[in-house]
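hi support,

uploading two proteins for the ticket. first:
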Amino acid sequence: MLIVSGGFFGRRWELYRVDIKGVEFYHSLRELPKEDGFFVISYGLSAETLSVKVKSSDVPPVIFVRIGGISRETKLVDKPVSLEPLGFSLDKQGYIQRVKQVKGEIEKGTVYQLNLSTKIDFSLKGDPLDLFQKFFKRQPTPEGVPKIFTP
């Protein structure tokens, strides 16, 4: 099953349960079937379509999730969850160095804007779906999807 926000279907910003009929992999957007579903484009295809150099990946260029029935998610339960930070992908000195690199690229005119971010690793205590539901309850989004859940 897949839990998604109703914005995907032009419905209220509530959570909906979507049955998954199958997952398929494609090499091009042109291969996608003309039916209901969700698709994910990998970085590799983004590089091809946008002419932007990115890291290569073993992920298939296009992932298509074929969907079936849609029903309103009524089993929202407020269970306790918590996140504990484990570490950052960049230390303070590494981050400062990257900021200097970005400023240099802006000064050279290579880019006019760059979003520099740092990955933060967390340990989750509780169910990932409960965490998503807490976030969604505080700030509903029209196209929110936590992850694919299978029974």
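and the second one:
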Amino acid sequence: MNVQELGEEYRNRTDKELLRLALTPEELTPDANAALKSELARRRIDSGTHLDAARQEEEERKAENDRGLGTLGFIPHFGVGRMRFGKGGCLYNSETGVEQFKTTVFVVLFWFPLIPTGTYLVERKRMLPDEVTGLAKLPLDWKQVLKVWIIATGSILGFISLIKLISSDAVWRLFHR
């Protein structure tokens, strides 16, 4: 996109969206930054007070989303609590090392995902520990929920089949001749 196309794109955005973009200029190309600054000046929202207010609002929004994501605490010995599953629509920024993706949080029992409690857009840096920051709560992604349930059910059925195979008479006789 050239500067003129970017300017047109930014004219169609709300003030909040533009100010949110202005908070992370390092993620924009030089042309996008120039078009953004021009549009902010045209709307007279390019002052430091507007940016400070947007920064504060963004921090509050992220804190609220983090509260919605909640502590993914569980009792590790029994696999009881809340865990996130799935990684859909992953976007990776190689310059910042941050990836964004959709994930669904489930209530788990014995590490089996039972009840989906919410789908979130999250971001994280690709390093340990695996800490995610909630960006937005999304409508429940039933396609992702179904995939998680299918994989979990398939894993349990595969484990049961393996136990049956190992404990079958034919395998028992093979190893105890």
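thanks. also noticed: The first helix runs from residue 3 to 11.
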